[in-house]
Amino acid sequence: MDLVDLVDRKHRREEERNENGEVTFAIPEFKTGDLVDVHVRIVEGDNERIQVFRGTVIQRHGGSSSNASFTVRKVTAGIGIERIFPLHSPRLAKIEVVRRGRVRRSRIFYLRDLRGKAARVTEKRDLRTAEQKAAAVETAQ
Question: What's the whole-model pTM score?
Fold first, then answer.
């Protein structure tokens, strides 16, 4: 085992514990085009609160390594806001996938030039029946 694997294993969320010994959250599977809620810990003086940043993932960078990151874009009051989050940052409280997006590219920077309804990403729909989904879950376990 080399040093890079050792550092990667140390910084993975699944194995990480905080100061109180509590296990932190596991990172969900999300891809470019997905609509996500990123819960960010914000420290203001002595107070700590959680702020939710909801937007579309326009890029993932670094795979699953310890320096992996992802970029989330949202439009508020006609102004586009992009934030880059380190995937394994202790400032991230939780990542929730709200909706899966259907895109053909790994980096969808073309959304920056689109306005209004043209900037929407179509939702990936699962066309399987409930019985097929249950069978797929059983085979996965």
Answer: 0.71
Q: Of 90, 85, 93, 96, which is closest to residue 50 (Cα–Cα)?
A: 93
Name the burial class of residue 93, with classes exposed (0-12), middle (13-18) and buried (19+) by CB atoms within 10 angstroms of its CB.
middle
Give the mean model confidence (pLDDT) for residues 94-119: 88
Q: What does each C-alpha distance from 31 to 4, 48, 101 come to in angstroms?
A: 24, 29, 8
Q: What confidence tier does 40 reach under pLDDT thresholds 50, 70, 90? A: very high
Q: Which two tokens stand for residue 25?
A: 């959250």
DSSP string, 9-72: HHH-GGG-B-TTS-B-PPPPP--TT-EEEEEEEEEETTEEEEEEEEEEEEEEESTTSTT-EEEE
Amino acid at 60: R
Position 68, amino acid: A
Q: Which two tokens stand for residue 30?
A: 């999300």
Q: Which fold has domain 3-140?
A: SH3 type barrels. (2.30.30)
**Percentage of the chain surpassing pLDDT 70?**
82
Domain ranges of the chain: 3-140
